[in-house]
Amino acid sequence: MTESVIHVEGLGKLYRVGERERYFALRDVITRAFTAPFRRSGPRKPKDFLWALRDVSLDVKQGEVVGLIGRNGAGKTTLLKLLARITRPTTGFAEIHGRVGSLLEVGTGFHPELTGRENIYLSGAILGMRKREIEQKKDAIVAFAEVERFLDTPLKHYSTGMQMRLAFAVAAHLEPEILLVDEVLAVGDIEFQKKCLGKMQDISKSGRTIVFVSHQMGQIRRLCQRVLWVDGGQIREEGPTGKVIAAYEEASMRTAQGAAGANVAGVFLGWELASGGNILQDGLREATFSFLVNVKEPIRRGHFGLHIYNDATALVASWGFDDLAFEPGVQHIEITVPCLPLRPGSYSILSSLFNGGNNLTGGHMLEAWNAVPFLAVDTLLLGHKQDAWVGVTNIPANLKVTARKEATRA
Amino acid sequence: MSAATQPATLAHPPVPVLRITPPTRWWVVPFAELWDFRELIYFFVWRDVKIRYKQTAIGAAWAVLQPLMMMLVFSLFFGRLGGLGSDGLPLFIFYYSALLPWMYFAAALQNSTNTMVENQRLITKVYFPRLALPLSSVLSGLVDFGVSFLMFVVLMIYYHIRPTAALLWFPAFLLLAILLALGAGLWLSAMNAIYRDVRYVLPFLVQFWLFASPVVYPSSRVPEKWRWLYGLNPMAGVIEGFRWSLTGRGTPPSRLLLISSAMVVVVLLSGVAYFQKMETTMADVA
């Protein structure tokens, strides 16, 4: 049984806000001290406190790559800072087995006046490497960052790209048992991100544990087996990557698009996949959408529209069915597609029902429904392996190479 | 048969187990942890010294020019014109021997006051015992001290002053100076991290402290019955100690030194306690 390398119980972090601001200067402290006997002080108001993290418990096993997702301000970075010992918890405790390396920022410790070589030593030492270790890895670091020519130039003469490459090169050669990464991979150009991701994958393959905070679901999907969704200082959901990301994306899209709740009074009562639920597991097999409708009038020359939008509100698939006829009451409408090869992610469904023709032939619309829940596609990535080249569709392909036969002389 | 233990190599170091809890015992000094991070402290000192010397046009010469110029000004105005006396020592020696610890002390105060704020980004991104920062500020000043000490040796040779057996006490006084710089530095760096206007108060504090210390006048000028009060200034003992151990003349150790040394210990221990207590809030307000 693999042991937990990170064990957290009831961890909480309380920040005091508001009143504190008023005495940030020594002169204010002195003034307060003198006026103290004259001031009527009441109990601290509740709005003065902020629980950035509250009663968080989790376990991370060795070799796991765990992703932390959530909105800005949810508490992900606070949790990481607590695990990195940068700030102390207010309640609870955490137990860590192994050396921790924290990558909360690129270029920690860099000083512009020092040369590249000097900064490697400085940054390496700050991140926790011993002098011996830095000396052993120095050549590898320089090669990874591709800055051999500029080793002896002060860092202030480096371009931003070079600085970041060097910073990440140092951090990448840190070999702690546990690595805490905070959105570091979000900065920089595509090339840089590719390199970072590749290195992280190497690190995870070598059996190290990684806790990774990111806003880029693509990166999380690639690296993490388990994801924790942090919301309002607590863990809202945790589990396999696909499931948690689907729930998170749905909630985000819902707040963004302001989708309605249950549609009890309307025509559309609900929908699901015939295989159950709203998560599509295989895009290459037949899929059936099952809608429940409640019509008050007989449908003649009816029109049913089904439209699927991705998270960028682009229409990725759409069908329209005309000349429908059925009686009033509760009806099941099932739409089967031979395959639905969409890239993994969250999709919103718009379904519409017209009577007496469609929108162009004079029919009247009974309802256009923004279906809830959203469709979550949780399949393997079958197309291009690189994040930047993942297309809207998700279809496998085969490649075969054969030599061209020379024309033979008759 | 003895049990064989597998030596810890770079590839398989012993796995440390760490417990992260809310802060409790702030009065305990983490000696073991500081020793663990000694290489980082070395790198901080190295960085500070390198930056300081890269940024000044005259580099190391500044470490000599500053005390020399002060010595000249003091000799002219306090020595010659003011007639404050010099315990029988040549004026230059009198002032320079006091300027040695004083310049070190003032520079250490300046550096440690700012260090937590300057390294703010570092503190919020990486873990290391925060004590390492003011500690390295205090240690990096020793490099400048070494350079200005060489100048002092030149002066001693010029005035044909031979060091006496009192010189054996010199390391003790140097240590006292370092401990005092550390204690005061801890107070100031912690205060400045939280109340950001401390660094504006510092120049006045240093100025006042200079005249409250026997730099421009010998402590023998202070009336006998007030000397114990004067000794509450820890720098008083340090400076007189420097003068006496380096030249063999001046004021020999007395009750004043005892009181001053006790104050050094008080400042140091309270500084460590205050710093540790404030440490937990420093990362939050940064």
Describe the structure.
- The complex is a heterodimer of chains A (410) and B (286).
- Chain A has helices at 26-35, 76-83, 116-127, 131-145, 160-172, 190-205, 217-223, 241-257, and strands at residues 4-16, 49-61, 65-69, 91-97, 100-103, 178-182, 209-213, 226-231, 234-240, 268-273, 279-280, 287-295, 299-309, 315-326, 329-337, 345-355, 364-370, 375-377.
- Chain A is α/β, with parallel strands linked by helices and 410 residues long.
- In chain A, the strands form four sheets. A six-stranded mixed sheet of chain A has the order 5-6-7-3-8-9, sandwiched between helices. In chain A, strands 11, 13, 14, 16, 17 and 18 form a six-stranded mixed sheet that branches. In chain A, strands 2-1-4 form a three-stranded antiparallel sheet, covered by helices on one side.
- In chain A, a hairpin with a 2-residue loop joins strand 8 (226-231) and strand 9.
- The longest helix of chain A is centred in the middle third of the chain and has 17 residues, at 241-257.
- Chain A is globular and about 80 Å long.
- With 286 residues, chain B is an all-alpha fold.
- Chain B contains eleven helices and one strand; from the N terminus they run βααααααααααα.
- In chain B, helix 3 (61-81) crosses helix 4 and helix 7 packs antiparallel against helix 10.
- Chain B starts with 16 loop residues before the first strand and ends with a helix.
- Chain A binds chain B through residues 15, 20, 23-29, 81-100, 102, 104-105, 108-109, 111, 113-114, 118, 121-122, 125-128, 130-133, 136, 177, and chain B through 10, 13, 15-23, 39-40, 43, 46-47, 50-51, 54-55, 121-128, 191, 194-198, 201, 280, 283-285.
Please supply descriptive tags for the structure shown above:
B: 286 residues, globular, disordered N terminus
Distance between the ends of chain B: 56 Å
**Assembly state:** heterodimer
Give me the Rg of chain A, rounded. Answer: 28 Å
Largest interface by residue count? A-B, 50 and 39 residues
Mean of the pLDDT scores of chain A? 83
- Widest β-sheet, arrangement of strands of chain A: 5-6-7-3-8-9
Q: How helix-rich are the residues of chain A, as a percent range?
A: 10-25%
Question: How much is the average pLDDT of chain B?
Answer: 84
The count of helical stretches of chain A stands at 8
Poorly predicted ranges of chain A (pLDDT <50, ≥5 residues)? 258-264
| Number of DSSP E strands of chain A | 18
By secondary-structure content and strand pairing, the structural class of chain A works out as: alpha/beta
Count of DSSP strands of chain B: 1
Taking pLDDT < 50 over at least 5 consecutive residues as the criterion, the unreliable ranges of chain B are 1-13
Q: What's the order of the H and E elements of chain A?
A: EHEEHEEHHHEHEHEEHEEEEEEEEE
Put simply, the count of helices of chain B is 11
State the secondary-structure class of chain B: mainly alpha
Helix content of chain B: 55-70%
What is the molecular shape of chain B? Answer: globular
